[in-house]
Amino acid sequence: MGLDIEANKKLVEEVLEAYPKKAKKDREKHFQINTEEAKTCGTCALKSNIKSRPGVMTPRGCSYAGSKGVVWGPIKDMVHISHGPIGCGQYSWGTRRNYANGTLGIDNFTAMQITSDFQETDIVFGGDKKLEVIMREITEMFPLSKGISVQSECPVGLIGDDIEAVSKKMAKELEMPIVPVRCEGFRGVSQSLGHHIANDAIRDFVLGKAELAETGPYDVNIIGDYNIGGDAWASRILLEEMGLRVIAQWSGDGTLNELEIAHKAKLNLIHCHRSMNYMVEHMEKAYGIPWMEYNFFGPSKTYESLRAIAALFDETIQENCEKMIAKHKPEMDAIIHKFRPRLENKKVLLMIGGLRSRHTIGAYEDLGMDIVASGYEFAHKDDYEKTFPMMKEGTIIMDDPTAYELEELAQKMNVDLVGSGVKEKYVYHKMGVPFRQMHSWDYSGPYHGFDGFKIFAKDMDMTVNSPVWNLISKKEKVQAEGASI
């Protein structure tokens, strides 16, 4: 059953009425109500991947965030230098919960932030010499580091530091891979360009630089999974139980060597299409490796994806797949039986990155929850073309929504749950609206696979049905009456 198309059109119009005429005209292009025509014919008229309107509160990140925070940062056995002022390096300190095996500071550097800490003199005279010194210090302090990446911040691009020349010189001196990444924050319209730049750096400096001693017909890569709360581990368990061999994880719990040998796989399995599609398309063209997008959020989509993956291999893998699904299905059915009655028909508003707003739909629907509005921070047109068929008629679909728009929609639609990022989290807490942080799982996880769904279902129930929301409503009511509690 769909939502009321005309009512939601009117609702969006009402929300946008608060803007000046020019701003309203601009923001109207970033909203579209899902219809049967849009679902079946792919008529996506919604504008995306263009600059946010100046003066509004956008939830987007920058190019540096896309490269350092997403693609390169989780590579655990390399040191990643934030080249520029201290602010960017400090802000990126361990906020994404990219779990990784190893000992911190010895062979795992994911939670460490190394910065060149630009001062005024560096802006005036350049930071090239300082960068050389830092690289030498890194090899002395962290002798087990397999390489270094240089993640350039805004001032580096403005003053013209030659990080490529420095990296080339120091790679020869230190005898290790050093990768310059031109991901200055001001480049592009969002973190999406940072993903692309990071992919290009992997392609140019790392991919294909090593060989795999033994290869087999079941070798696959997990691409675009950043192991938030252990997601990649939960996914890998299923693939290996099915009989496949994962030779590389990009980039959660990943290593430099895994990037170097990934070209030997027989299939690329891509989770976050938006951040890594550039790489799988390159590997298909350069090495003839096919790829497919998969979705391990919720049992329905997990079953569907496992069968689609197995279909690309022989009967042995296909039989293993069915046995594995049969083994796990009773437990998944029991989880749904337990939590669905508590979550049935609860209304959800999602606004997440460039992937999860469509990938998590199945998990919510398995629990009987309704997605009434959904959008992305930095999606492109092809992301929306994949999203429309997954949504019910009448769903509000939005691109780069402002803080004001999200708050108004949540209130006017009387949603039961908002799933978004940490920047939005505390606003909804103060509004008394249940909220899950769907960028890094609110200190929980994993959410992928069968292990993850058990946690996901519990977390959604715990959030929506927590008695704390009644206490917030009571407090607001008493304060409105001029009393106190």
UniProtKB/TrEMBL annotation:
Pfam families in UniProt: Oxidored_nitro
Record carries keyword Iron: yes
Cofactor(s) of this protein: [8Fe-7S] cluster; [7Fe-Mo-9S-C-homocitryl] cluster
Catalysed conversion reaction: N2 + 8 reduced [2Fe-2S]-[ferredoxin] + 16 ATP + 16 H2O = H2 + 8 oxidized [2Fe-2S]-[ferredoxin] + 2 NH4(+) + 16 ADP + 16 phosphate + 6 H(+)
UniProt EC number: 1.18.6.1
Keywords attached to this entry: ATP-binding, Iron, Iron-sulfur, Metal-binding, Molybdenum, Nitrogen fixation, Nucleotide-binding, Oxidoreductase
Protein family: Belongs to the NifD/NifK/NifE/NifN family.
Annotated function: This molybdenum-iron protein is part of the nitrogenase complex that catalyzes the key enzymatic reactions in nitrogen fixation.
Subunit description: Tetramer of two alpha and two beta chains. Forms complex with the iron protein (nitrogenase component 2).
Protein name: Nitrogenase protein alpha chain
Species for this entry: Paenibacillus borealis
